Amino acid sequence: MILPYFYLFVQSLAPWDQVDSVFVPSSFTWRSYEWIWTGGGYGLPQPWLQALFNSMLVTIVDSVSVVIVGAIVGYALSVLPFRGRRTINTFILFQMFYPSIILLVPTFLIIRIAGLYNTYWAMIIPRLVSLWAIFMYTSFFRSVSPELIEAARIDGASEIRIIFQMMLPIARGITTVIFLFVFMERWTELMWDLIVVKDPETQTLNVLLSTLFGPYHSFPGPLYAAGTILTLPILVLFLVFSRNFVKGVQLVLR
Q: How far apart are CA 186 and CA 200, in angstroms?
């Protein structure tokens, strides 16, 4: 499991004449990373940093939105009494059994008709809500004592305040699991971003790396460097939130 990542990192530090020719190079250099940062000077466009910014933008917006919307909707479906709640829960569960690929073409047509093609919104809007996150929050909030919620209402707390100041802190482990999984899924997204965005200034880093056989095929070192940069956010997030992640997974498996 570790070996591919080790190879990726080592090759990103290898001199260009040794990239892919030896497993462990005789020396190490930051040239590939400098090439990405400075633009190289080979007469080729260097949108690596812009692509990294694009990936961070769409991933953070979608991940935060999934948590917020999932918590609000999950709270409503698990706590608030209203007509049709059971039907909505059944529909969410039913919809989760269908692969998202079957909605690819209809979603693309909606984006194009709405005039959002080749924009950030084309990548962001379809991933703002996750039925899986709603289902997870709904299941967890049902285990919270109703007396605790009623006590907060008696103290004058609004439903929104209960969600963000009481329910989300209680669901810290579940929230970590949801955020990390959604972040990882969105960060590694390729097919959808490749379809809805053609402008190099708007492309994500995954889409840029998919041009391996394009104008950058003669520069494998920077490709390895970009691949290493692509893996770092997920690694850092997991190391920072590993304790909450383990607690959240234990709650899910109960």
A: 19
* Interatomic CA distance for residues 36 and 50, integer angstroms: 10
Q: Position of tokens 């939105």?
A: 65
DSSP letter for 126, please.
G
DSSP characters for 172-217? HHHHHHHHHHHHHHHHT--HHHHHH---TTT--HHHHHTTTTTTTT
CA-based nearest residue to 135, from 70, 62, 65, 72: 70
For tokens 């190490």, the residue is 28
Q: Do the Cβ atoms of 176 and 133 come closer than 8 Å?
A: no
* The token pair that represents 234 in the structure block: 């997920």
Residue 139 burial (10 A CB sphere; 0-12, 13-18, 19+)? middle
What is the value of pTM for the model shown?
0.83
| pLDDT tens-digit series, residues 59-98 | 999 999 999 999 999 999 999 888 888 899 888 888 888 7
- Indicate left, alpha or beta for 219 from its phi (over 0: left) and psi (-120 to 50: alpha): beta
